[in-house]
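Students often ask why we bother predicting the structure of a whole assembly rather than each chain alone. The short answer is interfaces. A chain on its own may look different once its partners are present, and contacts between molecules only exist in the joint model. In this exercise we take two input lines together and write out one structure for the complete complex. Read the inputs first and try to guess which parts will touch.
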Amino acid sequence: MTATWTLLTLLVIAAASFPLGRARALACAGGDSCALHSLPRHYGWASVLLTLGPALVLFVLLEMTAPATPAGSLAVVACALVALAWALRRMHPGFRARQTVERGVLALLMLAACVAIATTAGIVLSMLFETQNFFAQYGWREFFLSATWAPRFQGDSDLGILPLLWGTLYISLIALVLAVPVGLFAAIYMAEYAGQRFRAIVKPGIEVLAGIPTIVYGLFALITVGPLLRDYFAQPLGLGSSGSSVMTAGLVMGIMLIPFVSSLSDDIIAQVPQSLRDGSLGLGATRSETIRQVVVPAALPGIVGAVLLAASRAIGETMIVVLGAGAAAKLNLNPFEAMTTITVKIVSQLTGDGDFAAPETLVAFALGLTLFAITLCLNVLALAIVRKYREQYE
Amino acid sequence: MSDQAARPISLLKRSGHTARRHAAEARFRTCGLGAILIGLLALAMLLASVLGSGLGAFRQTYIHLPIHLDEAALDKSGNRDPKALKKVTTISYGKVIAASLNDTVLQAGIATQGLTKDDIAGIISREAPAQVRDMVLSDTDLIGKTIQVRLLANGRIDGYLKGRITAATAARDSNVSPAQLQLADVMMERGLMSLDFNAAFLTAPDASDQRPEAAGLGVAILGSAYMMLIVLALALPIGVAASIYLEEFAPKNGLTDLIEVNISNLAAVPSIVFGILGLAIFINFAGLPHSAPVVGGLVLTLMTLPTIIIATRASLKAVPPSIRQAAQGLGASRMQAVFHHVLPLAAPGILTGAILGLAQALGETAPLLLIGMVAFVREYPGAPPEGLFDPASALPVQIYNWTQRADPAFVERASGAIIVLLAFLLFMNAGAILLRRRFERRW
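Now the answer. The structure tokens for the assembled complex follow.
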């Protein structure tokens, strides 16, 4: 509560400093605003910045070391008042107020841009820290090389990542087997064959799929696709009797990825120069021959990048697998069997009532770090490929 | 060559080779069309499945009943002392309601063979006594009078009238008997029971496992709204400021490259990783409360930032350099040129991007699971700013929550909640498209 009041007091002081600074500068210039270096309001803003800046820095420092003591609040307010007095002393007509303000604003803009770095650092550091705690209690060899996943509440759990990794990759593979051909063909048709009107109607339709939240896909898997696959494929074929399965999650995730693959490939195909197509068509190739032998090979690096991005999406997807894939950690080839993924286990280990210091909970951070590392590699690779490809034709 | 020389070539007749090539062309084209059809079919199936199972949530079975609020049962002292009245539990109200229902059924002359009094009372929701109790506590003068009320019917009866439960499944169900379903049929005919629009679905809080008929989205919608407020208040200014810096001022140096790389990577980081970040930093390190909209809002802000930054940069880039040059030529500083001219011209694009980012944040579930928003919350959060720290739910998390319940009636609720979620998203996206159409300028 002291913190809120301190901030409010600071705001009041800052609000007061604007007219004070402005009036002081005008008074120094004898009321003639033309004699000032900058516009009068710049002097106001400059005094606000000069007052608030040091006080806020002190406030943040104090909050980080010793949160919200009355003495600290007093110090902050005193600092603001001193800064205000000092700022007002500087408000003479020759003071370059606009430059001061703009430098302050630029610093703020830069600070905002650095939030991205802070976020990444936060992600990496928080996970590294907890992962270290985990490996202090559980051997990394068992984590990475053990093929059993059996957490127990009493402790003495087997926490091998391999079954989870297998489930993740298997589901992603099925998703990509569906999404890549369908998405690619849809993009090719849209870019090379479809007329204006067809495009105008169908393209938004496909893109709607991209805007649907993943929880909706998850429910779709749970109530429609899962039972459908179980009743018409798995049970008649004698492959399993579970509604949630690798196939269910994979197919639904594939549907989710179709618009992702198609819109990325669409962009890339559109970047292939028209002259390549014209040359091929002029030599007598049919349109499909042109596409297969000229356009797609030319766009191939970009398409590979798109597929990698889709794969990274599939690996990190959570809600579809939570609702569609099941919770049993298995190393199995049967696609109609329930399996589980890294993301599912992160959710289940962190949403329970488990002891936060126990390896059964901390393992989620190790899983998260592994997931982050895998997707980061895929993303960096994909972005590098796509960027290189773009330069090629620009 | 000898092959070709032997065969007469006619330009007028299609050779077999050409026919094969044309067939391949047709096949390829069909494949493309087929792919698009698969996509559209999937969309249609998805929407049909959600709408089909979710529309029922917007209609609810109610029992219309005169209830005699017996003074002897509800207020023994007779002096309407609010403290004493608060001590009267829902059990007493349940008995009052059961008695009234029995009377009504008898008076209407409905045959009740094979039904005990408890069976008859069982068609009323377990939530109904609480409903009546709240009514009485807010107006103590009602005690002793006979009032006409509209009570929730039990979830199984509701399911029967919506076609989810049949007499055959009821026979195997310990919670409902076929005789009760028949009673419901007769009551429907007599107008004692009706299927009405379910406004409570949008306003009521969540309900426990045994009361799917009372579960609503009120707390979830409020929680989502709070989080969207936070995302809007934080992500929009930070995102726009970061974009202005990167697009207009950033020198070409290592720091800028680092920021760029970070933004493009953050855009592709799995959302659940942001949940881990929220749990580790905001909850464990900074000590913010579990399940609070403020934590959810912060996590979603970090997640939405890349989207908003990418959109904002695109629209800043679309403003032609001549605008900046003209402003600077007339004596504006670079900062003034950006804030007075470029930013207003880019505003529609920025707003569109912000709305799309918000839509993405609204549907995000996984990170919120990790910061404890799955908890069962029945209390509405308070008004902001304190309310931002109260436990709340969120729309997508509520959906997930309901899919984990045993009673199949919750599947209907979850699908209904998805319809609400999709309606919000449709509204936001339509707004973004309209904004773009209305204000977008091309130079």
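Check your guess against this: The two ends of chain B are 58 Å apart (CA to CA).
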